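Annex B. Sample input.
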Amino acid sequence: MPPIRDKFTIHSKAVVCQDVELKGDITIGAGTIVHPKATIFAIAGPIVIGSGCIIEEGAIIVNRRKEVMRIGDDNLFEIGCRVESPTVGNCNTVCTRARVHHTLRMSSYCVIGAGVLVVPTEDEMLDEYTVIHGPAAERRIWSGRGKVQEMDLRRKHAEYLRDMLPKFNRLRRGDGA
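Annex B, continued. Sample output.
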């Protein structure tokens, strides 16, 4: 297998800390925030991260498939989570220490609860508004109530991080997109 070539395209409005592990062909969209100690590995195929995402410390995003891993807009990857899903829609939350296997594709407005391990035996696409929670990875459908408030809170969170992270961390400069 040939060595992985590093090619990072970081939008000028993205906030990516210097202390982030990036490997492979990675594109990071406008307004996305990547905390220190996060890991993004494009091992087999490229990773394209949309705008307005928040990737917290210790989060690991890995693409082991040859196809492009597409992560939509306004997603939140919390502390210590691991995501190998080839498709992540918009406005999803992967909670602290949750793990999402490469056989699961996420649509939009899905929530993977704290510490949940999601490993389908066959390729599966989550319906919109699916919530997976608890030690047995139980599923339910969220009504969507509070969606607007959730997005407002996430925007304020991102605004705060855009102000605070550069004060205490060195940033990676992108080549602009």
